[in-house]
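Supplementary Methods S3. Complex input for the S-adenosylmethionine-bound model.
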Amino acid sequence: MLQHGEESMQAVEEALQRYDLVPKTRQRLEDSHEAMYESLTSMKALLEDGGLVPEFHQMFEHSPLENLSEYYHHILRDWAWDDQRSQYFATHVNDENLKRIKKVWLKQKPEFILALGAGAGRLSWDIHVNFNPKLTIATDINPVLLASAIRLIKQQRPLTLPELYKYPQIGFPHAAKWKMKPANDPDAKRDSWIALGADVWNMPLKPRSVDCIVTSWLLDVAGGDVRDLIGVITYLLKPGGQWINTGPLLYSPSLPFDQKYSAEEIKQFASLAGFEIKKENIDEIAHMASPINARFHHEQIWSFAATKKYAEEDLPYPKKPTDDNWLTPGWLIIHHLPVPQLHFACPHEHDLVEKVFSLVDGKRSIQDISYSLQALMPEGIIAKEAVVALFAEALEFMGTE
Ligand SMILES: C[S@@+](CC[C@H](N)C(=O)[O-])C[C@H]1O[C@@H](n2cnc3c(N)ncnc32)[C@H](O)[C@@H]1O
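Predicted complex, serialized as structure tokens:
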């Protein structure tokens, strides 16, 4: 990101050397250069504040930057734009985001709230102040966003960041500089709010340790299959805990089409994983509506509250292919659920089949089994896919036996 920023600044510097500029073009280029310089310097300072020194790595040389730059605007949406009254919301966008959460919130008083993919932290903070748990952990994988949250919430230090648009909007400045105030901190609530840099697919938290998980604008952009994200949520949530989701289903373009699930499909996954959806709402809202831009997104938002009704081992599903109502079993679809003990005698001798079935103990899931088998797989074979196919064939065989 820094490298791209420096290249863009250089291009503007070269353009400024030209003799054929009208004063207004020169002004626009100079303003843009200043905004680019300030945003790069501020981001570098934010990372250094957190002890992170940028280093070039070839692996990321060709990484696309769209999301990073989009998420930069999330810092402004969370902490800057509310400075002015919004023309799209009754008061401000962040009030509206919290209202949507309150509308579906169940009458529970969680002690430990976990916000996954919390971005620049505003919603996690507003939820923390409103619902007053003993602990809120806001996690994200993007250090720039987390560092902004830490600075404004935890350290109570202001932050100045510029906003810059490439395309002119008539009647709007193309750049602005926002001085963001630290978060309001009634009763020093920041002591029990913690930011944690973590990948949602590798969470450093104990299973069944969380009372409430919030996923805001994450389901569709977490970089994986929603079924697996539901697996992570189930893994972390205590039985009886609540899962609050809000956001659109605007999947990342890189996600395969078969994984661009509808709300109805996600509800089926949630139900298979032992969740009961108790409240839900659909809203249409203006998204990323900056006071210095005429353009914004119009999005459909799905918000719901679900409770983890069953612990994984108590799921009331048929356990044997001979049971009535035996359809595709939940554990074959939601790969973190325990595989029940199946008594399958393979008609042919087969090492992999034997190995897989030797790992079935009524507790391990397809996720666990394939994790321990991946190293044994021939190159190019994804253990999970092989294990799912193998179980499916075994079940079919057992059903027709
Ligand atoms: C669309 S933003 C939403 C941010 C915030 N929750 C909100 O409601 O504004 C998605 C967030 O998820 C984070 N994210 C994406 N993949 C992640 C992963 N694998 N682990 C943790 N965070 C992730 C991104 O860094 C980004 O902050």
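The pocket of S-adenosylmethionine is lined by residues 71, 74, 117-119, 123, 140-142, 145, 199-201, 216-218, 221-223 (CB under 6 Å). The mean pLDDT is 91.
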